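S1.2 Input.
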Amino acid sequence: MGAQGTATLDFGVFPGSSVTSVDVAAAGLISTSAVEAWIRPVATADHTVEDHIIVPMRVVGQYLSDGNIRIYGINANDVIPPQEDVSPATVRQNAPMLVGQYNVWWVWNVFACVSIMGYLW
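S1.3 Output.
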């Protein structure tokens, strides 16, 4: 395992936001590293453990540059399914934005492909 840690996503005060991100320094991270992030159910100043468990949020970790990752928090209720004809105004009306801070975990690992007789494993 490369490295691991915690971070805090902040959607701001009311009315909040549908998307937020936080940049994290991750020593040793390189472009071929695999980055993951997920919700950490630990209370913040404005959300309980239970809020962390039930929040409709997608969390994604992304390689940003050597030694740096970006973690996104996305309101899952505000994502329009593909090939569905719904106006963004309708979705926003039905999906309130997230507010406040949420804790997340992150981890990165070295990802290596091995080629054996032309097959990637």
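S1.4 Remarks. The two ends are 19 Å apart (CA to CA).
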